[in-house]
Automatic annotation (TrEMBL):
<dbReference type="GO" id="GO:0032259">
    <property type="term" value="P:methylation"/>
</dbReference>
<dbReference type="Pfam" id="PF10294">
    <property type="entry name" value="Methyltransf_16"/>
</dbReference>
<dbReference type="InterPro" id="IPR019410">
    <property type="entry name" value="Methyltransf_16"/>
</dbReference>
<dbReference type="GO" id="GO:0008168">
    <property type="term" value="F:methyltransferase activity"/>
</dbReference>
<keyword id="KW-0489">Methyltransferase</keyword>
<protein>
    <submittedName>
        <fullName>SAM-dependent methyltransferase</fullName>
    </submittedName>
</protein>
<dbReference type="InterPro" id="IPR029063">
    <property type="entry name" value="SAM-dependent_MTases_sf"/>
</dbReference>
<keyword id="KW-0808">Transferase</keyword>
Length: 214
């Protein structure tokens, strides 16, 4: 292993969790060009392995919602904290990402927290629907609106995998693409609402917990 990691101890809701993350943003290891072939550049490689503030906001949201028995899909799961919480709370969760190490980190973090059997799916947002996945009651994600073209791709995932009366939760630090996401989701028949939250030491409530329902 040519990248370095650290273990983060944190409390979410009523439980303590241990999450293995990359040591910092300088980590990189792609000897077989697996990430490069997926279009993940060296500058973006380490992003999946960080515990971001918006990811913590999503995790706290999942820790208090009534989700037992619900089918949930986490997109861009990264370190999969929200998926682990959902699994612990008896939800039928599937974690998904496109980074070649995401599944391995999910396995490690499951073991650290005494959990097992969290399903994982490598999911390309522009791919045709994988019918083996079925449909979901709730689709969740954080830090998934990096680029403008991610809006249409994310809307495609929702269209393919959301049940008729599904809910979608997207946590975003306020990068500027939230308005376009609202427009795309309303065009697909969703109503929208949001809750603002602070990001680190910023003086304004720039973060958004976006909720879509139909």
């Amino acid at each position: 292993m040519r990248y370095q990691t650290r273990v983060i101890d944190l409390r979410v809701g009523e439980h303590e969790y241990r999450i293995r993350a990359l040591k910092d943003l300088q980590q990189f290891h792609d000897p077989d060009q697996a990430a490069e072939k997926l279009g993940i550049s060296p500058s973006m490689w380490s992003l999946f392995g960080q515990l971001w503030p918006t990811g913590l906001q999503l995790a706290n949201e999942i820790a208090v919602r009534d989700i037992a028995g619900k089918r949930i899909l986490e997109i861009g799961c990264g370190l999969a904290l929200s998926s682990l919480i959902a699994h612990k709370r008896q939800a039928d969760i599937t974690a998904s990402d496109r980074h070649p190490l995401a599944e391995d980190f999910l396995s490690q973090n499951s073991t650290l927290n005494g959990l097992s059997g969290v399903p994982y799916k490598h999911l390309e947002w522009d791919a045709q629907r994988d019918r083996s996945l079925g449909g979901f009651d709730l689709i969740i994600g954080s830090d998934v609106l990096y680029e403008r073209d991610h809006i249409a791709l994310l809307a495609n995932v929702v269209k393919q995998y959301a049940h008729a009366h599904a809910e979608v939760l997207i946590a975003d630090p306020g990068r500027g693409n939230c308005g376009a996401m609202n427009t795309a989701m309303r065009a697909d028949g969703f109503t929208s609402s949001e809750r603002r939250f602070s990001i680190e030491d910023r003086p304004v409530l720039s973060g958004r917990m976006m909720r879509f329902q139909r």
